[in-house]
Amino acid sequence: MLKKTLVKNFTFRQLLPHFSGLGFLGVVSPPAEEACRLNSMHSLRMFLVAVFFAVAAYCAHAADPATPAPGAGVAGTAVEAATPHGDAAEGEAHGLPPNAVKLRANGFVSNSMVVTWIVAAFLILFARRAMKNVQEVPSGAQNFWEWMVESLYGFLEGIVGSELVKKTFWFFATIFIFILFANWAGLIPGVGTIGWGTTDAAGHFHVKTPLLRGVNADLNMTLAMAIIFFACWIVWAIQANGVGGFILHIFGPKGDTTGALKILMIFIFIVVGVLEVVTILFRPVTLSFRLYGNIFAGENMLEAMAKIVPALGWLIPIPFYFLELLVGLVQALVFMLLTAVFTLLICTHDDEGHGHAPAAASGQEKGGH
Description:
By secondary structure, this protein is mainly alpha-helical. Helices cover 68% and strands 3% of the residues.
């Protein structure tokens, strides 16, 4: 009954309900007595969403170097051809640039942000459409949605436990499904290959400013997701342990010791706690670079395979497309599992099986590489 209720209420707008106690876009009509409360929270939810997108846009604008306007690449064709280095420049490899480019020189919207909004809108609309009229015997989109959510819930329940999954499932399921569909959206023909560019002396057009770019091939996006997880991790850790328990969990001595040995162990675990703080602070960095590196390398590999034999550029990349479909699934799973295990480690007390959790984290770290 819990899983059935969970499926009926689960949509991608549930990034906020566990903080506000409300749905983000609401698929279930609220009781009449809650209508006033929902109206009072509507403005707050919209404000939080606006702040989220504004911060993401500002981060992308601050992190990326200035790029020329789309029209500038076309206008610069004659200049490149007239310079002595024009042919050499055109002969260089035209791989995916490491940073997402802005669609306008003085704007803040990058090509990866456009794909992010498209993927998010598709998932929200798909979730609402699938769960609009919930049937007792599901079929079609509702059947797929319930299968996916129930499978993820059971999978995560086996990892973090029945109590912790109730609190954290909304985040882990959302992040997994979003990363999965974002990775696969980056493989759609036209993403990264349609845009503005220049034409070389042989008449070949080279895209300099793609209109679209894979979501997770932008480090700004992966870092933003990792930072959001880090903020949630701190909240969950304090809720589970309290402020004092959180500090003791990191710096407190483990095991039963007495006398001078206990004093020595306190000193040792303080040093170990400092090292643990460093590793905790680096978790957003490792999470973001792992996902970004795999997706960015995959997209460049597909382009390289298409150019090995130009005459067979339509055929050679096909096996690698299937490989990248698998990589997209694996990387979404790895990101979700690592965040789930990190949460389990901080929310599990010493008497609840601290012994097996580190081994699981170590295994997931190895799997991520």
